[in-house]
Amino acid sequence: MSNASLEQLKKLRSVTQASISDCRKALEESVGDYSKALLWLKEHGIEKAGKKADRETAQGLVDSYIHQNGKVGVLVSILCETDFVARTSEFKSLVHEIAMQVAAMNPNDIDTLLKQEYIRDSSKTIESLVKEAIAKLGENIVVKDFKRFDI
After folding, report:
1. What are phi and psi of 9, to 5 degrees?
2. Is 4 exposed, middle or buried (0-12, 13-18, 19+ CB in 10 A)?
3. What's the whole-model pTM score?
4. Are residues 127 and 81 part of one domain?
5. Do 37 and 64 share a domain, yes or no?
6. For the domain that residue 146 is a member of, what is the CATH number?
7. Fewer CB in a 10 Å sphere around the end CB: N or C, the chain?
8. Is the pLDDT assigned to residue 116 strictly greater than 60?
9. How far from the centroid of its chain's Cα atoms is residue 93's Cα?
10. Nearest of 86, 69, 89 to residue 17 by alpha carbon
11. Number of folded domains that form the chain
12. Phi, psi of 50, deg, nearest 5
């Protein structure tokens, strides 16, 4: 592997957190084109997420978010397969982002939540955010429940 492609591999891994073998395969499939490799990894990650959808989710986290005005609060329950993944910073961040999404957008139910545009990046939905986390963490992740309180 040349220095240029080694640097691309390192950069791709750093940006996506995908495995080294997935990054290498993405660069090979895209003939060294970094942008195409990013796209390949995104599509491949979504494919991986689909394969994990039937796996049992018996662990996870409950998180809360209170908006700074103190008049909106949210509790969310997000499940994954193992307590190991539930303790990772990536999973904790996902759970908190979903709690903030519920506070900001007030979805009626889980299906509505999953179809909403992500408040931090309108090019993504919450469903695609969850699928990205599934691809990155290697486990099935499910939004189990949420409750929004407001005054």
Report:
1. -60, -45
2. exposed
3. 0.69
4. yes
5. no
6. 3.30.479.20
7. C
8. yes
9. 9
10. 89
11. 2
12. -60, -35
